[in-house]
Amino acid sequence: MKARWRYLLVFGIAALGLVAFFGHSSDPIITIENESDNTLTKIILSGSGFSQQVGDLPPGEKREVIVRPNGESGLNLAFQVNDRSYENNNLGYLEAEGGYRMKLIVDPNLKIRVMNRSAFDF
């Protein structure tokens, strides 16, 4: 019986170690979801040490983007609709590692809702 508990303990510690390693070593993933009736064009995600062009996003579509900030960073989103520019700064906090996940939802009024998830949200 003692051997069984020992195996369970070792397995449990190993499983937690794997979750911690993979959860904290992955690059941040940002999901942009377009709930508006317009195509978002010239989308750019930016922050400390990165500026990434995302392209265009039609209504009802979403896209996941991996970003690589230099250490601690805020997150900014810029896009255009019908040649009008929209810029949203300081949408959230992320780091180069740690399994950060953020969802940016562009609503029908072209306002941004932010949802944060950690790598441990299953």
Question: If you had to describe this structure to a student in words, what would you say it looks like?
Answer:
The protein has 1 helix and 10 strands, in the order αββββββββββ. With 122 residues, the protein is an alpha+beta fold. It has a single domain (2-117), classed as Sandwich (Immunoglobulin-like), CATH 2.60.40.
* Secondary structure: helix percent: 10-25%
Whole-number tally of structural domains? 1
Do you know the CATH architecture? Sandwich
Please state the structural category: alpha+beta
Put the structure in a nutshell.
With 122 residues, the protein is of the alpha+beta class.
SSE order and pairing:
Blueprint: H1 2-24, E1 29-34, E2 40-47, E3 50-57, E4 62-66, E5 73-74, E6 76-81, E7 84-88, E8 93-94, E9 101-106, E10 112-117
Using brief descriptors, characterize the structure shown.
122 residues, alpha+beta, 4-stranded antiparallel beta sheet
